[in-house]
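[SOLVED] Predicted holo structure with zinc ion

Edit: marking solved, answer below. Original request kept for reference. I posted the sequence and ligand SMILES and asked for the 3D complex as structure tokens.
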Amino acid sequence: MARKVLEGVIIAVFFLIFLSIFVKVETHTNAEEAHLEVSNIPMSFAAERELDNIINGSLAEGYSHVEMAISENYTLKAEKVIEVKTQGTVIVPLVYTPNIHFDNITIKNAKLLNASILITEYRIILLLKLEVPEGRRARIDIKYWAVIDDSCKDKRTWWINSLFVKCKSKDEVEISPIFFLPVEGNRIPITKISLKLPKAWESWRGIVLKCVCDDVRDECLPLEFRKYNEELRLEDNIFNTFIVIIGDFKVEQFTVNDVNVTMYLPGNATSNYTGIVKDIIETFSSTYMPYPYKNLTIIFSRNFLPHSGGNFKYVVLVVPNASPSLLAHEISHSWFGCYAEFKRIHESLAEYSELSFALQFYERQLKELERYNMTLSEALDHEEGVIISYNRNYTKPLARVYIEGILDPRVRNVIQYRKGAFVFRSLQFVLGNETFFEGLRELLKECHGRECNLTDVQDVFEKVSEQDLDWFFKEWFYTPKVPDYEVGNLSVTQRDDKYFLTFEIVDKNNFTMPLEVEVTTSKEKLVKKVWIKGEAKVSFELNDKPTKIILDPNEWIVNENKKYNVEGIEIEIN
Ligand SMILES: [Zn+2]
């Protein structure tokens, strides 16, 4: 009941505001044509909600088309024509942003009763009240211009602003039409845009991304317009985000596992991305489940955030020199993040996918690895070192990170992404490949169409492994610690031609974990998997004197690393 009264008050206030803004505007009016000087129209401030009420209350219907011309100095000149089908007294709300500079507005076949402007934090609305005679169609002709760069700088263009560090480079531009297009409220049956590019850009290609980005989804549908001066048709409401990417792109198209892949590469690119993308899709399709969608478009954008990528369900956006690992990460989000949802856990799973793909890829393509000047195990060791150095100063366990997030992007990248990935790698080590991958496949099934949390993830792995994994999840996800191993009480005894090595491993942080222990002699290299429950006794029978003991030689676990000597034997805690 209280709520009803409140609504009544809000409606009354809204009407008062609505009436008060319709002050008389001086225009050059005759029965057929009115010219409107936007700078003369009175303005007042309003709340976003008021704006929505006005937009939703407008009954005007019609269609529109826009002719836009981009010039080589990155300015955009446009003319928009709206034909109003509704007759009688009609209010046409025109929503726009300050990027738009009006030159001239002309109204034909209707009498302009009033014009006013409301400004909110994010939008501006021009309200035109018209009297359209019976049997006539009012026509609103709007001439305006905008500077492309402004859309990147304007905080209101948050989406384009957060993804593209710049909107123009000498061979690519991004424009976000909703910021260069005054739109008629929520009712745009069809907006036809004809876009004219400078002569020098004649061979460029354009892609329109029609995106929905909200709390639930981040997805974009790509639509290519190839020809110079081709018409774009945007048929949606303003709450969908459009980005138009125009640039000197070459296109590569291929099919892999029934997925149609289209790649837009910088015109001068010479790379083997076709082979890499095929490899990624085949690898994940066989390990996880077939690629969940029919089409994938990958745009290598020169204006995109450095060293980054993003997966928007049907479109992956990445930097032009993307590494195979970065591509694997982004494409893996089609499974973890798009097909199945895990809130922030999906970054750990995508990073795990990246890591496991990179290990397989570089093992096959050793040449590719040469440019990094390190071996695979050195790369893994380096990765672990970075995680350890950040983790020492970070006290939040992953379980909390998945709920609260991490503000600092560098810390987020190391903890939520890379440490999370390594913990899933440790779970792979505990469960073995078969059970672990069955768990990931089951996760995709379980979490398709709903958002899974860490408990759901644990439940799935417990179900497929038929094991209680509480101990693993507790120590790895619910504490920020990592194991800190020490080797002690070491002795070597010789009997006949055999050497008997015994020692203790103590974990100062008291984890329960299986651990690979490698012992080297001049004649052999032996590896044992030992369960450490805070501590363990280990023994080896050897054919020669031991020279080296390595804990975690294959880098399955993130743990404190150190090297020292005990009784002439080199100890490497890896
Ligand atoms: Zn990611």
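OP edit: The mean pLDDT is 87. Thanks to everyone who chimed in.
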